[in-house]
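Supplementary Methods, section 5.1.

A reviewer requested that the exact input to the structure prediction be made available. We therefore reproduce it here, unchanged from the version used in the analyses.
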Amino acid sequence: LFHYTNVMGAYGIITSRSLRNKKIQSMNDLSEMRTAIDCFVRQIPGLLKGAEEWERDDFMESVVTRLNCSASINICVACFCEQGDLLSQWRAYGDLGSGLSIGFASSSLKELSQERQCSLLPCLYNPNEHNQVLFELGQMLLSAYDLVAKRSNSQNKKENLEDLISYFVTTFFQLAPIIKNHHKKKKKEWRLVTCP
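The structure derived from this sequence is encoded token-by-token as follows.
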């Protein structure tokens, strides 16, 4: 897998023998996070279909509010590409052709991700895959909501649901960096995503 960078970035990687992940809030293309959030929001009517409980609606509204206000979430990524000589990557990350494309052995990155409790994942470009992954994530969230609602008493229910939302938002943003616009599928990108 290849990481495109400028000369100073390459110098830093080589001399420190380490990669520096970037906070998702400071990524070049913030629309990437928006793509994942918007796709999740589109899944909500299907997730709530048949549910007559207004509290679930309010809960999902709270989840979406937190997703939209996630400036403080501490998720970081490093970006890689399957191709070491791709014009769009040179333009965006390789200092307009005067940078470098550094190749990393996939097996080494997988080992690193396991050692550091990170995830090394290929990006998903197909909207149907986006829908499926985020619908399933939403189903897991609502199953957890049902358990919390059933097992909590009136005194600790609100706090327990807030904890559930926090956990979900963190999980969501660990997944969100691999949800990519289908127009960018030629890049064949991978993400190394940190856990907070």
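The radius of gyration is 19 Å. These observations are discussed further in the main text.
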